[in-house]
Design brief:
The complex is a heterodimer of chains A (about 325) and B (about 350). Chain A is mostly helical. Chain A has 16 helices and no strands. Chain B is mainly alpha-helical and about 350 residues long. Chain B has a single domain, classed as MetI-like fold. Chain B is flat. The two termini of chain B are about 20 Å apart. At the A-B interface, helix 9, helix 14, helix 15 and helix 16 of A face helix 2, helix 7, helix 8, helix 11 and helix 12 of B.
């Protein structure tokens, strides 16, 4: 889609008709076609997400299947045939002979899984609380927003660490690795709902005095129905922007926690866990175990971040 | 203030509004601290059984009963909470489950490392951030300024730990490449872990006085300060651009003032209010992000202690760190808010007006 857009003269495109044209000529798509940064970052994001989803098909090895590993392949340098087996690995191997390229693909899967569920969780929680705070008001509003204020006093990564620490305390030692991924999702989600709640509350306060809400109230719709079917669709634009930016932050938060050893366990390594493992080999000269996961994380975080920035500018007419 | 001196009525109104605002902010801060204290107490009380954690395998019912009374676990929740706060206020934050030493003692021992690191990287962030911000604003379309802006965008998106790890890779391990037939290594021989040698002055162990201590400080300080620096730089730049567009700057130029006088005496001064606010708030996050930097460089500070306590579920240490850092955050927020109020006269007038 982006390709045809770049090669076709503007006059031809505006002449398009039919249902596709409305979408093609919308402000958002127009601004997208004109921004190389948006196009490139979308491309990188889509490629990375697709390779992560299709990892079992693309990856040359399955890093979780010990039968495909050969210890003799350990510490192969990137692009060079192994001294013992003669096999060549694009990005080298780690100490157990795991192909780094494959572990990156599988690691990215876990990173993206955690980040997207965490953002989804934060979004549902934040939007719900924001709607309730804005529409119901009164002491409910006060309590919700006071909690949000207290939480905003602290950096979200600190909150996530704390929640993860508390959750570890509640889990018996033998189950900690099993539940680690879910703890991570909840910790990041809980550390990130405030942005959603504040924005949704603000928009709800404006929307709830508009005529369509009054009309809905007149015909006797319940509070819940008004919030869900009438106000919610009208506050979704900013939510989309925050979700994109939160997604980039969640990827970084996940990687950071895993790197610090309080996130994804070594049995289910995410990009952060891989970088943490790679650090141990850095000082002994096996740089590729660290560098390639690090560059992947960098590309992922940067492209999602840029995409979020662009989306915020594109959807916010005041900044244009 | 000159006006206020002429009109005693205005002065008292202004002072009342200010006083009310200060009191309101202090009450808010105390509430936040009480809530955090409650969380910390709840962690200590309900995450795992404190008696299980303190007593080992060999214990008698009498031991358990004695400790229960000693820790006050037989008393009502509210009384326990109150005692917990009272003890905390007196500097008694319990005993670490892992190290079996008073938490306060451990924290005091670790604090100098974190504070020195935070101070150096904070100073670096402020000095270079403001300088680069001014530079990129004045030379807005220059090649150097554009390059700096693009790099800073990457700096903002890079996770702190990745910066640290990459710095270790480049300057501590050294990347080798061949250029014009010569092998060049980027290895600067900078240490990648620990504080180097430290000198003890009273209860404070400082790394500032030894060569290895100073060398060990370089990479961690850059890691910790880089993000704050880019943030301050971008902020100064956008504020500067905003101010430079205004009429009084154009008039200052028209009056024939020299470019330097316009940029620094007229423009910079007016950009500093938001910069001070954000910088102040960032002080708190330097302390928080020190956790990450300290883990990357195995820097023996409070942050590394906190991460270790999470890994080993050492609840008293976690709770103490939480309270310590919240006192710091709340204090910083309060001071910044009051400072903001003191620096920007417009805010004072606004509040007085709203008060009526």
């Amino acid at each position: 889609m982006a390709d045809t857009g770049l090669n076709t003269p503007i006059s031809k495109m505006t002449a398009k008709s039919g249902r596709g044209a409305a979408f093609w000529n919308s402000d958002l798509v127009y601004s997208f076609r004109r921004s190389p940064v948006a196009i490139i970052s979308t491309l990188v994001t889509v490629i990375l997400v697709l390779t992560a989803i299709l990892a079992p098909l693309i990856a040359p090895h399955n890093p979780f299947d010990p039968s495909t590993l050969n210890l003799m392949n350990g510490f192969s340098q990137p692009m060079q045939p192994n001294a013992f087996t003669g096999e060549t690995f694009w990005l080298g191997t780690d100490g157990q002979g795991r192909d780094i390229f494959s572990t990156i693909l599988y690691g990215m899967r876990i990173s993206l899984f955690v980040a997207s569920l965490a953002v989804l969780f934060a979004m549902v929680l934040g939007v719900t609380l924001g709607l309730i705070a804005g529409y119901v008001g009164g002491w409910v509003d006060t309590i919700i927003m006071r909690i949000a204020d207290v939480q905003l006093t602290f950096p979200s990564i600190l909150i996530a660490m704390l929640i993860s620490g508390i959750a570890r305390g509640f889990t018996p030692v033998q189950y900690r690795d099993e539940v680690a991924i879910w703890v991570l999702i909840i910790a990041i989600g809980l550390s990130d709902w405030v942005q959603f709640a504040r924005v949704v509350r603000g928009t709800t306060l404006i929307e709830k005095n508009k005529e369509y809400v009054q009309a809905a109230r007149m015909i006797g719709r319940s509070r819940g129905a008004i919030m869900l079917w009438h106000i919610l669709p009208n506050v979704l634009n900013p939510v989309l922007v925050i979700a994109t930016i939160s997604f980039a932050l969640a990827i970084i938060a996940e990687a950071t926690l895993s790197f610090l050893g309080v996130g994804a366990p070594p049995t289910e390594p995410s990009l952060g866990t891989l970088i943490n493992t790679g650090r141990d080999f850095l000082l002994s000269g096996e740089w590729w175990i660290l560098l390639f996961p690090a560059l992947t994380l960098l590309a992922l975080a940067l492209s999602v971040n840029l995409l979020g920035d662009w989306l915020r500018d594109a959807l916010n007419p005041r900044l244009r | 203030m000159g006006n206020a001196a002429l009109d005693p009525g205005a002065l008292s109104v202004k002072n009342h509004a200010m006083l009310a605002y200060i009191i309101k902010r202090i009450v808010q801060s105390v509430i936040v601290l009480l809530v955090v204290g409650l969380v910390a107490f709840a962690m200590f009380r309900f995450v795992g059984d404190p008696i299980d954690n303190i007593l080992g395998q060999e214990r008698t019912q009498a031991d358990i009963e004695r400790l229960r009374v000693e820790l006050g676990l037989d008393q009502p929740f509210v009384v326990q909470y109150w005692n917990f706060l009272a003890r905390a206020a007196q500097g008694d934050l319990g005993v670490s489950y892992r190290q079996s030493r008073p938490v306060v003692e451990i924290l005091l021992e670790r604090a100098p490392a974190t504070l020195e690191l935070a101070a150096v990287s904070g100073a670096m962030a402020i000095i270079f951030g403001i300088m680069l911000g001014i530079f990129t604003a004045i030379r807005r379309d220059g090649f150097a300024a554009n390059t700096i802006m693009t790099i800073s965008l990457i700096g903002v998106s890079l996770p702190t730990f990745l910066i640290g790890v990459l710095l270790i890779y480049f300057f501590s391990v050294g990347m080798q490449f061949t250029l014009f037939g010569q092998t060049i290594s980027t290895d600067l021989g900078l240490p990648s872990f620990g504080r180097g040698e430290t000198v003890k002055i009273g209860g404070w162990s400082t790394g500032f006085l030894t060569e290895s201590g100073l060398k060990a400080l370089i990479l961690p300080a850059i890691t910790l300060g880089l993000y704050q620096m880019t943030l301050i730089m971008r902020l100064v730049r956008s504020e500067m651009l905003e101010v430079l567009r205004q009429d009084y700057i154009r008039f200052a130029r028209a009056r024939g003032l020299r470019e330097r006088a316009v940029n620094f005496r007229h423009a910079l001064k007016n950009t500093l209010v938001p910069v001070i606010t954000i910088t102040g708030l960032q002080l708190g996050s330097i302390i928080a992000f020190a956790i990450i930097t300290e883990t990357v460089f195995q820097w023996p500070g409070v942050g590394l202690l906190f991460i270790n306590s999470i890994q080993t579920v050492d609840i008293p240490v976690m709770a103490a760190y939480l309270m310590l850092i919240s006192v710091m955050f709340v204090a910083i927020n309060l001071v910044v808010d009051l400072l903001y109020f003191a620096i920007d006269p417009r805010l004072r007038v606004d509040r007085t007006a709203r008060g009526h």
